[in-house]
């Protein structure tokens, strides 16, 4: 907006000039600058629309991943393991008070007792291969906070829970 006012001010100053050729050259120069700025504005508008779309996709993905993760935790905390296997078509073993998803190989078993504890979103990572949502899970009895990763494939199908550090 300031540039438009500056343009108008320059035009008023030029109107006082007696040399029409100089005025025409300056007018052409400023019209060209305005045209360039309008093109830049259009490009920025396109970029804003693209970012809004990406944000909406990211937000939707976060909501879906969080909903499914909390639902999985509810199944685990209520010991509804058969329902979890049926609902998410996933294989795992329950042993020694923990769930072992078997993947990745370096993964520790997920302690069932953590499933009912408060958990807070730490991060969301979206990849071409899928989505990972990370949580801090509070172990209130031991005053510890655990980091877990709930992993989904590209179609948001649950894969496993990765147990991180404390």
Automatic annotation (TrEMBL):
Residues 1-20 form the signal peptide. Residues 20-68 form a coiled coil. SUPFAM superfamilies: Rad50 coiled-coil Zn hook. The keyword Signal applies. Keywords: Coiled coil, Signal. This is Lipoprotein. It comes from Psychrobacillus mangrovi. The lineage of its organism: Bacteria, Bacillati, Bacillota, Bacilli, Bacillales.
